[in-house]
Amino acid sequence: MSLPTATPTLSITGLNAAYDGSQILRNITLEVPQRQVVTLMGRNGVGKTTTLKCIVGLVKPLSGSISLAGVPLDGRRPDERARGGIGYVPQGRDIFPNLTVWENLLLSLVVHGRKADEEVARVLELFPVLKEMLKRKGGVLSGGQQQQLAIARAMLTNPKILILDEPTEGIQPNIIDQIGDTLIKIRQEGKVSILLVEQYLDFCLGVADRFYVMDRGAIVAGGPIAGLNDTIVKKYLTV
């Protein structure tokens, strides 16, 4: 007798999207299993960020379905999707530069009506550098510190899935390593799945369980991260 299959944290089926009449996504189908890190890869302009924006509700697809833990998201506003369990860190991080680190973190708790102590202690354990910077304004932090703050803020929403768009972009190598270690810790906690859009191949190989590759708005390869071979890399990822 076969065991029942666990419901994926995120499931996308037949997703199509367009901007100004030009089709960007073509029949995207992917899954993020529970307690796994999945990376979505591809060259610039192939539709990766558009896929994320469809998931969080910032772009309305032409067709297709998106489900979070088995619950359809069709027709739900971005704020409803966030409250339902989507933590999103966009490209560029979008922290509030004139607010302190603590105020940036507090905003997530206030919006989601959560108590501070246990949740903040958890994210500060994941990102210990932020402990020393709670009174500093977000705008004076380095790019790597801002990225850690953005991920910590998203984690305070108690998400089912953490969605990261190019988290290593413009960040020094030692901080990239720290972020990678933290994502592995989050996965090991077993509470949050992660969907990662990233072009830094070594980072993906170090943190991901599974991969998908996009080209011209479509999924052209996917599977366990060990299956990301040189042929796929040269054909779809090498610039």
Q: What would you say the CATH architecture is? A: 3-Layer(aba) Sandwich
Radius of gyration: 18 Å
Fraction in beta strands? 25-35%
Average residue-wise pLDDT:
91
Q: Quick one: CATH superfamily?
A: P-loop containing nucleotide triphosphate hydrolases
Query: How many β-strands, per DSSP?
Result: 10
CATH class: Alpha Beta
Name its key features.
239 residues; alpha/beta; Rossmann fold; six-stranded mixed β-sheet; four-stranded antiparallel β-sheet; 8 helices; 35% helix; 26% strand; globular
Write the layout of secondary structure elements.
Blueprint: E1 10-19, E2 22-32, E3 37-41, H1 48-56, E4 63-68, E5 71-72, H2 78-84, E6 86-89, H3 101-112, H4 116-126, H5 143-155, E7 161-165, H6 173-189, E8 193-197, H7 201-207, E9 210-215, E10 218-224, H8 230-237
Parallel strand pairs: 3-8, 3-9, 6-7, 7-8
Antiparallel strand pairs: 1-2, 1-4, 4-5, 9-10
Helix pairs in contact: 3-5
Overview of this structure, please?
- The protein is of the alpha/beta class and 239 residues long.
- The protein has one domain (10-237): Rossmann fold, CATH 3.40.50.
- It contains 8 helices and 10 strands.
- It has helices spanning 48-56, 78-84, 101-112, 116-126, 143-155, 173-189, 201-207, 230-237; strands at 10-19, 22-32, 37-41, 63-68, 71-72, 86-89, 161-165, 193-197, 210-215, 218-224.
- The strands form 2 sheets. A 6-stranded mixed beta sheet has the order 6-7-8-3-9-10, sandwiched between helices. A 4-stranded antiparallel beta sheet has the order 2-1-4-5, with helices on one face.
- A hairpin with a 2-residue loop joins strand 4 (63-68) and strand 5 (71-72).
- Helix 3 (101-112) packs parallel to helix 5.
- The longest helix is centred in the C-terminal third of the chain and has 17 residues, at 173-189.
- The radius of gyration is 18 Å and the shape is globular.
- The N and C termini lie far apart (47 Å).
- The model has no long low-confidence stretch (mean pLDDT 91).
